[in-house]
Structure formats: C-alpha cells, structure tokens
Amino acid sequence: MNHIVIIGFMGSGKTRVGKRLAKDLGLPFIDVDRLIVKKMNMSVKEVFERFGEAFYRALETMAVKELSTDSERKVISVSAGLPLQEQNQKYLQSMGTIIYLKGSAATLIKRLEGSNNPTLEGTENKEEKIKKLLKQRDPVYQKFADIQVTTGEVPFEELIKAIEKLEVIDIRLEAKDNPQLIFESLNSCGKDLEEADKVRNYLLMSLSSKKQEDYYHAYWSKIEKLTDGEPTMFIRDYLTLKKGTISNIEDLYFDFKSYDMKSHIDRQVLLEDMLKFAKYYRQILKGETSHARLNRKLKQIATIESLVHLPYLLSFFDYASTNNLNETERYEVLDTIENYWARRIICNYPANALQKMFATLHNDILKIYKRHKERDAELLLPYSQILKFILLRKQGTVSFPNDNDVKSAFPTRQIYRIPSNYKFFLFERMENENSPEANDTIVKKMKDGIFTIEQFHVTFAFFGNTWHDRYSKHIFRFHTDGFCKIALHNRTEHLLW
Predict the structure, then answer these.
(1) Confidence tier at 391 by pLDDT (50, 70, 90)
(2) Which residue, 11, 44, 268, 346, is the most exposed by fewest CB within 10 angstroms?
(3) In Å, what is the CA distance from 468 to each residue of 5, 49, 475?
(4) Strands 484-486 and 476-478: what pairing?
(5) Over the stretch 85-130, which tens digit does the pLDDT of each residue have?
(6) Residue 323 — pLDDT band, cuts 50, 70, 90?
(7) pTM
(8) What does each C-alpha distance from 494 to 437, 456, 474 come to in angstroms?
C-alpha cells in the first residue's frame, strides 16, 4: 500500500491537514473516527458511554485492518489512541507513509480548551492529563513515523506546502526481502551493508535531523568504536541476552526490528542500554576492566576465540555491576567458565552445542534465586556457587566433564591436531596456570612460530627402567582438580607433545 497516514495527539490538526493534503493531491480522505461514527450512527462520545473504550478500540482495529487491504491510495487520519494498540501497529506499518503531526504541550493545551474528547472528560486538571498522555504517547508516535512535522510553529499554509514538497520513498521490508539489494539501489555505492548498518539506519532514520546527529555521536559512534568498527556480532549477542534466543546473522536486522517494536522502549533509552553493554563487550574481549587479575583471566579465555559464551558474560557483567559483586566473586565465575572450556576441549566435546546453553545460563541462575525468594527461603549461596551447581548438573552435549573424564581423555587426545586457538589456550594454561610468574608471551610466540608443537614418541624400554623411573614422571602430571599439565622444564624453542 502507499497511503498517507497521519498520526498525532488530540488537537494536532490531523483532520484539517489530512483534508487539505487529500484535496491538493487529488486523493480520497478518510478519517477513521468519522468512519466509525458513520457506521455506528452515533458520536464517539456516545460509543464510549454506551459500550466503553475497549469496544471503541476494537472498532478502530477493524477499520484500520480493512483500510490496510484497500488498494486505492488515500490520505488517512487516525485517532490519537489507535497507534498505541499493538494489534494496530502491524496494519499501520503496511499502509504506507506515516506522518506524525507533533505539537508542543502548550499548543495542544490551548487547542483542546473546551474539548469534549472522552479521554479528557472527568479530569479535574486537564492540563496535567494532556501532559501525562503526551509524554506516554510521543515515543510511540516517533517510533512509527516516517516523517515528523511540528505544528503550531508556522502558519497552516506553510505547513501544508512543506509537507507537499517532501519527496517520500516508502519501503516496507518483509522477511523474504533482501534489504541489501534495496539499499544498493538507493545509494548506488556498491558497498555491502552489514546487518549493523541496517540496524543503525532503522534506529536513526525515523528521528528528526537533530536527534539523528545527537544520537549518532552520543551513542552509535561510541558503540562502533567499542566494537572496533564491527558491531554486527555485538548486536547479535545483545539480542541473545535480551530475548534468550539466538538470531541467524542474515535475520539480525528483522529480529532486532521485531524486538524493538514489541518492547516499546524509548529510542534514546534503547541506545543508552546498547552502549552500556558495548562497554561490557569491550571489557570481556579485550580484558579492559579495572582489575588486573580479571583482565588476565579474560585474555586467557579470549585465546579460545569462541564467542558462544559472550551473551552469558554480558549478562553476568551487568549483574555484577548492578549488585556490586566483589573482584573475588567475579574471578571465581570467570575461572569456572575457563575450567568448563578446558575440560570440554580435552574431552573433545562440541562447542556449537553450547550456544543455547550459554544464551539462557544467567536466567537459569536467577530463576533459582527467584524460586527461593518466592518461598521465603532466602538463598545465601554466592552467584559463583549457583553457577557451578547448574553446570555440574548439565547432561549430554553440554555436560561438565568430571575429573575421571578428563584423566581418561587426556592421554589419547591428539592436541597437535586440534584447532590452533585451542592449542594456544591449552598450552598457555597448562604452562602458566595461575602463577604470579606466568610467561605471558607463550601464545604470541606460538602464533609467531617461535614456539612450535612437535609430536614425539618415547620407548622407555630402550633406555631401561632407570631412565623411565627418573624422567617419565616429568612428562605428565595430574593435579587434584583433574586438569592436566605438560611440564615444559627444558624451556627450549619447542613445546613438546
């Protein structure tokens, strides 16, 4: 559809502007309120009084649903409350260009003096009611508006001319559409649009020019900087922690748009929240907290080069900040996640099985606290202990390998054939553990080829029992936690396996 739909608060001039636009453009004009009045053969006030507001809202939905399937282009004015109803929003978005006539509180209060609008009747302080309703509705209007025009500041004729001069290209995307091809046809730049680019355009393009500029510099540019100019994966992890489900990259734009429309979050509040989590994202991936011990642990985990645990760590960092968890507790959580990874790598358990588990892990922990609270049985165990409890109960492909599993798998695990990032992680951890004299150059030297991994076989019988008794104990040794360590006592240029 390519209707022109006018939305706005009571007294913003929707009917007057709509009629004039329809006349100048040679299009039919429909006022949804008057359409209902005609069909019901009674005024809006009478419908409210006789059947109640809920009934009237249902009539609005029926009317806008019918108009959304009308193929003849029209100018349509809708009531102030219609865009607030979730069931109406999908119809509005499918109808065409939405123009929001925005009026200041002072302008609207003046225009609504003596109004018999049912929403305002029975209110002792009408001015306060108007201000309250406007504050609630303005973010919704802005979210769905393709064009925002301020009324009451310029003469009516100038307002009409300004609207008519606007050249509107209205594009409504369905899940089957390819936004990349559409944006390329508009921009003709040939540059591939990342999903983050589409999300940025969605967040900013519906705002006024000033807000676009302000929000871009205050929020979006900072998000891009914190993610090293690659915010797409961050946005996916952000959506995962908010929804508890994992989006496919190719569906990220549509999933983000759906989340935003259902959550009804003010645009600025949403961007502020995204920026907060982008800061956590940076801390996790780069080890840039204010605690040296946490930073080292984060960098060790980052060596794995897997992102599946990021939604969980983002949620945990926010929880830790909100609840002022101390450094020891935060470290214990990170150490547990590292231990989980190390054991699974040694036992050759698949990493892709962890995506769904990590997506809901934080909420699973919070549910335990919530259940105890509902039963008036306060749970005094720290967060890290609940995390361990849940991980140890995991079964199947997401299980936490026990000590015996690790001891059984380690002697036959072909470390030299596993992915390089796993090698770097395991050798650095086994060599350094948590020693204060740790060699932080191991991973870099392995990546640079200074340290290499070689396979060798030792036949103890050839050297005799004396050699075996003297040296074999230095090849492997197991610690009480079930984690294995290769003793690299020679400190040569090769890491021997």
Answers:
(1) very high
(2) 268
(3) 86, 97, 10
(4) antiparallel
(5) 888 888 888 888 888 888 888 888 888 876 767 677 666 677 888 8
(6) very high
(7) 0.60
(8) 20, 12, 16
End-to-end Cα, the chain, rounded Å: 67
- Tokens (6 digits) for 479: 């610690």
Helix ranges (DSSP H) in 41-194 = 44-51, 53-68, 86-95, 105-111, 126-144, 156-165, 179-187
Bridge partners of residue 417, in order along the sequence: none
**H or E segment and range at residue 495:** strand 494-496
C-alpha triplet 206, 210, 216: angle, nearest 5° = 75
CA 53 to CA 59: how far, in whole Å? 10
User: What does the block give as tokens for 446?
Assistant: 């392995």
Instruction: Find out whether 75 and 22 touch, Cβ atoms under 8 Å.
Output: yes
Distance CA 323, CA 316 (A): 10
CA nearest to 488, candidates 432, 440, 416, 446: 432
Tell how far CA 356 is from the center of its chain.
16
- The two structure tokens encoding residue 20: 């004039």
Q: What angle do CA 475, 477, 478 make, to 5 degrees?
A: 155
Instruction: Tokens for 476, please give them.
Output: 């492997």
Q: What is the total residue count of the chain?
A: 497
Taking residue 8's Cβ as centre, other Cβ atoms within 10 Å add up to 27
| Gyration radius (Cα) of the chain, Å | 31
